[in-house]
Each structure stands twice: as structure tokens, then as C-alpha cells.
Amino acid sequence: MKRIEFVVKDKTFGIPNAWELLTPEQYMDVCRLLVDFAAGKYSVMEVRLRYVCRMMGWNPDKVKGDAAWQNLYLLARQADFMFEIVYPAGTLDGVPKDIREQARKTEPADFPPAYSRYLSKQEYKYRIDACFAKQLIPDFIFDKQQYRGYEIRTDFDRITCKLTAVQFIEARQILSEIHGSTDKLPLLAAILYHPGTYSSAGAHRLAGSFKNLDPVLLQAISINFQAFTAFLFTRTPFSILSAGKDEPLPAICTGMLESLYNLSQDGIGDLTAVERMDCITYLIILRKKLIESVKTMRDYKIEKTEISEKTGLPIKIINKILS
């Protein structure tokens, strides 16, 4: 459900229930709530309640009466886009597929008794569920200067992004090093919002100033980019580039950086041209080269199990490539 709709006195109201429907201002409001959640200030339900109130312009301190709270609670339960429920590995293996899918968003108490009893005994937790392709912080003003972000377009069933290949790879590398810390968020922001022609050294210098940015803005920039990369590698044909990869993200990023500079040796362009290639074009080339390598190895009669070992791709994907 993308929007939560309800009627009061014959007037219909709607609350966004998807990241893509948020305005930049609403997105920042959500990120403030998530920062408070991470700090232990609010529970998941409190975040949802306050989200509904902010979207509707209501003051939660002025909500009075059991009926009003019950209605607010029912609305808040429907605002499920911000979080997903995660169970320990293997917990849901014996559960029917439809129940497994519901379990990502549905609390154990809301299942039929047989499943409710089982799921409520598990040590589940909540985490932010952000996977979308939209720029929700198109720009910001800092120290009297406007910094514009990378553009993402998904109309006409195509995806484009103005991030250069080297920006994309360096930003992913920073994400892999954060591990819950905020120390490197200024550098991530400097990479993604670097003005003019991008350079790693320029981003490094800019990060020194970005240490003074609003901490919520830094977190919002990070969540937005993480959501974009999650979208690319789970909901597009580029998912093949991360399929079956068990190695840590830094290793994947290092491999991508090496692949980027190998393109120069392949005659696609000099190092500068390759670095400034947009990230989607780079991923298209990377995907094409991976598919070609699988087909070439098979032409040389290499067994699929060995191809899987060399590429890291699962056998089922190799079969799909070769079919």
C-alpha cells in the first residue's frame, strides 16, 4: 500500500507509505525520527506514531481520548515502509513462502495463533528498510553555498544517474567502512555532492568543511545513497554483479575499481574519460563483460562448477546466461 488513505467528515486524507512518495522536507522529517530511533529515544511504534502526526500536522501531545489514540495507532500500524523485521538465519526456513514474505513487515502478534506463537519466541529485530531510486536531497545550502546532488531518473522504464563511475565506487567504499560510525559521513557527502568536475582530492578537502553539516542531513545523505545502491543491485539487471558474492563489500568495491581502470586498457578511453563515465554506463559495461566471460569459458568447455568458482555466480544464474 503506497498511500494510507482515510476519511474524516467526508474528506479523504492520504499519508505516504513509500520512500518514493516523500518530498525532500518529509524525507528529512523521517530521517530525524530514524536518528532518534537509532539513539534509543523512540521505539518502532513511536516512530510510526510521530511520522503520522508530522505528515498530518498533528501535535501528539494534544491527542486526547482513547478513541483518538486508537485511530492514531491504527494509522501508525499501516505506516510500515520505514522498517523491516529480521529473524535469525534459518528461523523461517520451515515456514510457508507467503508467511515468510509477510514476516518482513508483519509483527508476530498479527499472525494466526500457530505462527504467532512460533515467531514471537524468536529473537527478531527491526532495521531500516530503504531500497529506492530517487534523489530525496537534491540540494542543500551550507556556508552560503548551494551544493547540488546527483540526479536519478527512472521514467520510461530506464534508469540514469549523473554520478561518475569513480564517485559511485568511492562512495560505496566509504559505506563499507562506516559500520555504524558517523566519522566518515562528511567524506561520503563530499563525494556525492562535490561541485564541478569531481576529484578525490577535492572531495577529501571538502569533507573537512562538511564535518559541520547537520548530523541528520549527513545521515539522510547516507540512507539515500544506500537505498539507491540497494535498488541497483536487487531490482535491476545489475543484480548479477552482486549475485552470490559472499566476500565483504570492501573487496567488491576494490574489484570494481580495478575493473574501472581495466576499461582503459581495453581501449574504451583514457583514465580520465573512464573515471568520468556515468555510473550506469559503467555498470552496463561491467555486466556485459561478466556475461561474455561466462560464455567464453563455456566455449572452452569449462565446467559450470568451475565457472561458478571463477566468477562467484550461482549455477542457476550461469544456466540462465547460457540458455
Low-confidence parts: 247-254
Radius of gyration: 23 Å
The outline comes out as globular
Strand content of the residues, in percent? 5-15%
Helical region count? 14
What share of residues is helical? 40-55%
Strand order of the largest sheet: 1-2
Largest beta sheet, briefly?
2 strands, antiparallel
**What value does the average pLDDT take?**
91
The helix-and-strand class reads: mainly alpha
Tell me the distance between the termini: 36 Å
Order of helices and strands: EEHHHEHHEEEEEHHHHHHHHH
Beta-strand segment tally: 8
Describe it.
The protein is mainly alpha-helical and 323 residues long. The chain is 52% helix and 10% strand. It has 14 helices and 8 strands. Strands 1-2 form a two-stranded antiparallel sheet. Helix 1 packs across helix 9 and helix 6 packs antiparallel against helix 10. About 2% of the residues have low confidence.
